[in-house]
Amino acid sequence: MTLNLNRREWLTGAAATGALLSGASASAQTFMTPNVNPTAENPIRAHFNENVYGQSKIARKAMIDAFDHSHEYAFSAFFELRNIMAELEDIAPEYVGMGAGSTEFLEKAAVFNKVDGGALLTPLPTYGDILRFSKSLNTKIIGVPVGEDMAIDLNAMRAAYTDEVKLIYLCNPNNPCPTIIEKKALREFCIEMSEKATILIDEAYYEYVDNPDFESMISLVKENKNIIVTRTASKIHAFAGIRIGVCFAHPDLIKRMFGLFSNTLNYTAMKGAIASYQDFEYQTFLKQKNQQCLKIVNKMCDDLNLEYVKSNANFTFFNAGRPSKEVQETMKKHHILTGREFKPFTNWVRLSMTKPEEIQHFSNIYRKEFG
Ligand SMILES: Cc1ncc(COP(=O)(O)O)c(C=O)c1O
Fold first, then answer.
1. Are residues 272 and 292 in the same domain?
2. Using CA atoms, how far apart are residues 80 and 64, in angstroms rounded to an integer?
3. What is residue 246's predicted lDDT score, i.e. its pLDDT?
4. Which of 175, 242, 243 to mutate to test the pocket of ligand 1 (most atoms within 8 A of CB)?
5. The CA-based dihedral angle spanning residues 89, 91, 94, 96, taken in that order and rounded to the nearest 10 degrees
6. pLDDT score at 264
7. What is the CATH number of the domain that holds 270?
């Protein structure tokens, strides 16, 4: 792979990342400092699965530099980012589509499903956007409850399939239950069911997965005309407010979704993403921090005998034994924001992994309030 981060950028970034890893630059970057004295104005944000460390230093610098060119149309940056994404995933650039966050792909898929007169087949609970878009289009939705282990139940989805279904949504890892679908079973399901419907696999949390049973389905896209894999820079890359999403699909599907080119993307965001996707050290740092956070919260659950789903993402889901709304209200008084209620698991709390020190602070307060 010959990714083209220039030497000056790389050296700046490598030095910065080295400093981050050693903690030496923590005081120089407010976004590195943990928020252990949260206030109403500056709460601990454990509710939206964001990366509260912010973007990598290299990406931030690239975006600041890019601003000088932000009056120009962004064609070259589009093709540069597209080539990088293709190279990273070992796929031809024609298979790559890009948008302002992955929400754009979910929306487009819902619209095309409506145009084709199809129903949507989806697990429940799952990430809600494609359902929301489909509902607003009056699309028929066939929801299939997750299994007792809270994993997506592919056999139940097969059984629920009807001829009306033209779009199948699978979120892997899922959200709010951070489970994965076992790779062999998923591959078989995709090969079989893509004969009948388009399958969209939402891999928003892909970068955080550390599980040998997980596999991205991008490899299938190369051989299959009916599979879309979506990714986002909103999570590990911390671009939730900057907006970059990437999807992978057969060129026919990419053309259908975008024509030749999506012009919703802005130059600054793309320049940031070009740098961020090549900053592997920062991603390693964030994954380590995520694992540290999960360890703290898992220990809390073990100590308090609370059931939880083994997380494959940057959030956890645990059974508080009381309404998650009560937990949310209590923690809010301590200026800690936790996830909203997710039906039907109304006693389960979704907690985003922020920084180990903040999750320790959450755990200390949770133990005092509910332990
Ligand atoms: C599973 C999943 N897919 C997609 C999204 C939307 O992300 P984006 O910011 O890329 O639109 C989210 C956001 O939380 C998510 O959890």
1. no
2. 18
3. 97
4. 175
5. -20
6. 78
7. 3.40.640.10
